[in-house]
Amino acid sequence: MIRKAPFIKYYLIFATFLMVVTQSGCSVAPWERGNLAKKQMLIIPNPNRTALRLHVFDSKESSQGGMGAAGGGCGCN
Amino acid sequence: MVDVAVIKKNKVLSAFTCAALGLPGMEVKSAVPTVEAEVNLQYGYYKEQGERMRAEVFHSDFVMPFADRLELTFSSDFDTYVGATPLYSLPDAAPDVVAAASGEFEAAWHMASPLLFSPESTEIENAIAQEIVNREGFNYFVDPFNGNFNAKSEFNKEGKVRTIESFLNFPQGSIGNPYQVMADQPRESRNMPILGANLFFGLVKLGLSGGFSNEPDFKSAFGSTQLSWELNNKLTTLSAGYGLTGNEITRNGGHGSGHHSGFSEELDEKSTFNRFTLGLSQILSKNTLLQLNGGFTSQRGYLSNPYKFVYVRGEITAEEYYDLLEETQLSDGDWAKYTDLEVVGVEIFRENRPESRDQWFFATQLNQHIPALDASLHFNYRYYNDSWKISSHTFELTWYQSLPFGITVTPNVRYYSQSSAEFFAPYFLAPRADGHYSSDYRLSDFGKISSGLSVSKQFAKGVRLDAGFEYYIHKGSLKLGGDGVDDYADISSYLLNASLNVNLSSLGQIMGGHKGHDMHAHHGSHPPAGVMAGHTLGKAGDMMIGYQFMYGDRAGDTVRGISNASNQSIVNNACLGKLCNSKAREMTMYMHMFNFMYAPTDWLNLMLMPQIISMEMDMGILPGADPDEAHEGAHISEGLGDTLMMGLFKLFDNPNHHVHLGVGVSAPTGETNATLSGVEDDDLQGYGMQLGSGTWDFKPSLTYTGQVNSWNWGAQVSGVKRLQHRNKDGYVLGDEIQGSVWGGYSLLPWLSGSVRGVYTAQGAVRGQYNGSSLLSAPTDFPANYGGQFWDVGIGMSVSIPTGDMAGNSFSVEWLQPVKHDYNGYQLEKDGSLSVRWGYAF
Lengths: 77, 841
Known about the structure:
The structure holds 2 protein chains of 2 kinds.
Chain A: H1 4-24, H2 47-60
Chain B: H1 2-22, E1 38-48, E2 54-66, E3 70-90, H2 96-99, H3 105-117, H4 119-136, H5 153-169, E4 179-201, E5 204-214, E6 218-231, E7 236-251, E8 254-255, E9 263-264, E10 267-285, E11 288-301, E12 309-311, H6 318-326, E13 343-345, E14 348-350, E15 356-370, E16 375-386, E17 391-403, E18 407-418, E19 446-459, E20 463-475, E21 491-503, H7 504-523, E22 543-561, E23 563-564, H8 567-573, E24 582-601, E25 604-609, E26 611-621, E27 633-640, E28 643-653, E29 657-667, E30 697-708, E31 711-722, E32 731-732, E33 736-748, E34 751-762, E35 766-767, E36 787-799, E37 808-840
Antiparallel strand pairs in B: 1-2, 1-21, 2-3, 3-4, 4-5, 5-6, 6-7, 7-10, 8-9, 10-11, 11-15, 12-14, 13-14, 15-16, 16-17, 17-18, 18-19, 19-20, 20-21, 22-23, 22-24, 22-37, 24-25, 24-26, 25-28, 26-27, 28-29, 29-30, 30-31, 31-33, 32-35, 33-34, 34-36, 36-37
Helix pairs in contact in B: 3-4, 4-5, 5-6
């Protein structure tokens, strides 16, 4: 079941990717972040609608997690 | 010198950096609390095609900053859902016989047995007998000792076993598309409050949250913590989270108690989920943001859905069925000798999932801003995999387009594809070695495409309205690679949502001091909390949002006219020609009314008031009643009520006297056929338990208010006129007229008390429900509604004229019955409480 060798390989690729990614943004000075501060650039610009959609997806699909859901319960038939 | 210059330049740069970082909103995800208190309200409606599930979700939340380091959040969700849901499925389209067996086990046998041992099966039996004779020779049936013909018990058994076998085999004759058997889900509701806190320590933020979710048969308590850390000049945010959820899944044994009719064994199970997440968000350029997330969840305990069944051929063999049938007193549980599954019908079992599930996901989001269009594109991808062998891919693209006038339009497209659980099949033609089975369509192979649009309008005064729509197409063939179960889970559905966001602090800031003072004149004479449409806004452009809560209770004696009625009198007279079997013991009502007011001109206010109602009625059996006919116990009805739209016209306005006319129309958005069990088309609950009138109603009112120094007073006449002869269910609620007079005194500049006298006359219900009704309690009869009521109200109101909370008003009123003259037989009113909050700006 557990594919050890590829797992380590993926981890290394991922770590390299992270290093590249985290270094690439260093040129963005704080006063250049006006666009990033816009509401439409938030990770979740409309938390209420997102939460409602996630509840629907969690009830109707078999995958959970990864989209910032909080809460529990079922409400799901 | 050069060094100094470099150092200076660096200092200037870092000073700029600090200044820029200090500006509110200059960081992507800053580790400082929200400066502004916010309130959100949302209504969501989800509906699947045809008679399948539909759900309403009412959500509210607020965020409140405390000092510099703490932010508190509270949210509350209230859902109701009802409709048909798949129960299990069968190999072909001739399933009536086995399908009929989805009820109580014994009943199932009684339904199936005639087929096994009826004249219809004689032909099969004869054929089998002939075959045995051919095989064994005729002498097989002749007693070797006395030569008499003797139908041996071995023959009886073999014949019957083979008859059963041929019966059990019949659905496999023609294997076509799976046939889904549906079950009706009665109306049910769920409450979920969540409390949260965010603590800020410089670059580190600690989030804590906890709450619970409460359904009649599924209780869940959960808590989570998340730590995030900004580094690399706030270009990078790392986060780690942990969440724990404990679930309790219960069900009373027996017949049709609440959830799904049909037989069920008692259930009391638990499950525990542990969730771990790691995240990274990274600014890639001044227009690009990337987020990566990964997580693991371990689920342990009872993970089956107790309302899903499976068809398993061969789990109990024909021979074992024969043995079961031979037992003279067949009782539930005898099958335990033959199977570990719970038997719910012939070849039908309750589903059984593994008691452990490990879930992994990896998700990423890329936000790209396009300055030329003032738009942003979000791309999301998630990969998911679990130990049940389900894996899925989710892709989503969302476009946020800013337009003039504070409008944002957001179209999106989403695609989801999953592979099935290893123990999933629409039906099982042979038992599985591990004993795990599920035919829940959500564990099947399928794909889903959806697309939606959301529109948002930001008003200058810190108020935002959002409305959205999304349509989903769920199909086996939409799975990646297209090898999903054909037609099995094909269903389309849609989701609607509308929400209001109010930024309280920014309102306060915009208002400043003098306008608050201006409001004071009008808010000082707020009518008591129970008076509807009793005040107007000051001038053109003003807005108000408000919330009014009403609680009403009826308990104790049943009254006829003005005096208590004996049980005997109720039995004989309250059910119009029939004997009454039950009566209401208590009824409680909770109403939540949301009020939006806007003044387009100085003399006109427009008002919109949607409401949510929740009622509970407890019925008791009357002495000597036939228990089969009576209904006992608590019934609920809850959901959206009627929606009031009103125009308020100022007729006269000077500092001391004010007169306005209200012209309102109530739209029939509330349900008018709530049933006792919550299942559609079942017996109707009393007319008083319905959430709406079902008719368009005219609601006029005339209000006078006056004030001199610390004194204020007022009077209102209002009415309700039903504009239609009958609603779609065959009845119409009575018309109403109400008069009310009050006086108040301001004890402090911001606090006043009031006394009010109210007279209400309400007509009885006319017509009669055109569907099924038990007609066994006074509440089932139209004549037992309405009457004339005299009440006295004692109230208090607080309004805040200046400062940060300026524009807020808060009032409470208790209405105490003084004299009530009821039409027919009715449960006595105990009084009602109104609480009102308003925020004008």
